[in-house]
C-alpha cells in the first residue's frame, strides 16, 4: 500500500513538472529574451509552492544582472510575494530591466507613471514608456509570474519550506543601512542596495549585464575533502560605481573566488562572506567582522581578504585607498585607506592574513583611461611594509594598470589566481602562487595590452621571508 501511494505521488509530481515546463515552453516560444536556467529553476520552485525559497533564488539571480530575474523580483516587491511589499524597490527593479530593453518592464513602468505610484503622476512619461513598449512589439514576453505563484499557492504547506528538505530559514535576511544580507549557495552575501537617489540608475544598464563568457576557471572548480574550520574569507566585489566608471567582471571575480574558497580550499560556508558593490560603511562593517573573528580565535584563525574594484591614490602623498561604490574618484576622504586597513588587520592575533587586491592604485581604470588624476597621468602609489602576519598580493605595481582579461571574463590577476588554485587543487604555497601569477600576468598583459602589469607581494617583516612557505590551503 505504501509503495502504491509513493508511486501515485511520483506520478502526480511528474505531471505537475511536465505541465510547468510545457507552460514555460509556450510562454518562451515568442520571446527574444533568454530566461536563464537559474531563473527557470526559481520559477519551478514557486510553481511547486516553495515560494520563499524561489523568491530568494530570483533575488540572487537578479543580483548578477539576470534581466528576467530582475523583472520577477520587481513583481515580488510590487505584490508582496516572498518578501515585504515595497513599491520603491519594485520601481527600481522594473526600471533596471526596462532600460535594458525588456518590454514587460516598460509596460509596468508606464503603469507606475499613470497611477502615480512612488513617482509623480506623469502621463507624458507614461506615453513615452508605452511607445518604447510598442516599439518592442507591444506584447509581454515573459511567463506570467502571478499565474505561477497562484499555482504554487495550491500547496501552501510548502510556502516556507526548502525543496531540498527542511525549513527555508530566512532569519539571516536583514535590511540595514541600505544593504541586504542573504546567501548564495549558503555563502553569506551582502549586497549594497541602491538608495532612492542612486545615480547608478541613470547609467546605461546594458553595461551591467553579467559576463556571457564562461571561462575554464568558472566551470571546472575542484572539489576537495579539505576542511579549514579556522579559516575565514571576506570577499569584496565592487563593479557598479555610482559616480565613476564600472569595473568590468568584478562581481564575477568575487563570486567565483568564493566558490573556490568553499569547494577547493575547504573553508566552511558559514566562514565566507561576499560583499557585492559595497559602500564605505558596508566595507568597514565587514572588515570589522573579520577583525572580531581573529580576536575571538586568539591567534588560531587564518584570514583571507579579497578585493576587486577601483583603487585610488592620494595625489599629495601617494597613499592608496580602496574606493567604495559610493566614493568619488577625486576625493580620497570618500575612500578607505589601505594604511588604515593594514594597521587594523596587522594588530589582530592570527596565524596568517592574506590580502588579495585585484585593483591598481595609480588612478587608472581597469583597462584604459584615467579614473582620478586631474593631470591625466598615473601616480606611483607608495609602498609600505604591513605588520603582524600580513601577506599582501597586489595586481599591479607602482603606476601600472590592473587590466581585465576579457576573453576569460575576469580581471587578469584574478584569472591566474584562480587558475593556479584550480591546477593545484589549492595545494600551493604562497611563494609558488606569487611566482606563477607574476610570470603569467606579465606575459599575457604585454601580449594583449602592449603594456606590463606586474603583480607584487608585500609581507610583514615579522614573517622573515617565511611567508613563501605558507600553504594557501
Question: What do these coordinates show?
Answer:
By secondary structure, the chain is an alpha/beta fold. The chain has two domains: 2-158, Tetratricopeptide repeat domain (Serine Threonine Protein Phosphatase 5, Tetratricopeptide repeat), CATH 1.25.40; 175-193 and 214-469, Rossmann fold (3-Layer(aba) Sandwich), CATH 3.40.50. The chain is built from 14 helices and 14 strands. The protein has helices spanning 2-28, 37-47, 51-63, 67-79, 87-99, 103-115, 123-135, 145-152, 216-219, 250-263, 280-297, 338-346, 412-424, 430-448, and strands at residues 174-176, 179-184, 187-192, 231-237, 272-276, 302-308, 311-313, 320-322, 336-337, 352-358, 390-394, 404-405, 410-411, 456-459. The strands form three sheets. A nine-stranded mixed sheet has the order 1-2-3-5-4-6-10-11-14, sandwiched between helices. Strand 12 (404-405) and strand 13 (410-411) form a beta hairpin. Helix 13 (412-424) packs across helix 14. Mean pLDDT is 80; it is low at 1-13, 20-32, 169-184, 192-212 and 363-381.
